[in-house]
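Weekly modeling sync, notes
Attendees: AB, CL, MP (scribe)

Item 1: holo prediction request
CL wants a bound-state model with zinc ion before deciding which constructs to order. AB pointed out that an apo prediction alone won't tell us much about the pocket. Agreed to run with the ligand included and paste results into these notes for async review.

Input as submitted:
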Amino acid sequence: MLRITQVADGVHFAETKGVNWTLLTEGDSVTLVDAGYPADAPLVAASLDRIGRRPEQLLAVLVTHAHVDHIGGLPALLASAPGARVLTSEREARHARREFLEQATPRDVAANLWRPGVLPWALHIIRAGALKKVSVPAAEAITGTGPLDLPGRPVPVVTPGHTSGHTCYHLPDTGVLITGDALVTGHWTSRIDGPQRITPFFDHDREAAGTALGLLRPLPADILLPGHGPVHRGPVAEAVDTALGR
Ligand SMILES: [Zn+2]
């Protein structure tokens, strides 16, 4: 399954059964935010095709965080888009290069198999290539502050907690906020719909992740594109309050 929805001018939200990514266009050029599981690589390529762009038109891939469900499709994609840079926060770039790993281990998953939805989710992600060791040696740190000189003019907002360099991307012109796994709207392992925090065992530092949500609250944004779950329309401050209140 691959569903692509244009949510704003030049902003395309791609949803699969397991994870989402976003494509930002300006003229012929594209910025991609996140890249799915390893087995999603053909779907990432298909999503570019569906919005009428070729891999050579991909200028950069921004990474919210370097978990296998968000960078898994990158190695295959970069092979066909050698000009694309991979950018994220300084800390997350190191994570993407696998200088360290902050991801739930198979042992963590096994300890949580009794929870609703965890077993079917685990079977799904194994098929999606979650056990594959993925690293992105080309990942670079974003330098400077403010909007990036890339399609979509995204503004990085570092929100440590889910991983210690987790980064959201805000598009002030369209009121879009790409929240990654800092704020989601659904997940195989969740029984609720709407703005929420991800299931606790996925967070590297649960407390920091809660604090980081406060950084999103003041942003002028009312179209939220999460790493998991559908698009959410409504002020980000309300979505953050809902998520923290659950
Ligand atoms: Zn995720």
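Recorded for review: The domain at 3-245 is CATH 3.60.15.10 (Metallo-beta-lactamase; Chain A).
Action items: CL to compare against the apo run; MP to circulate these notes.
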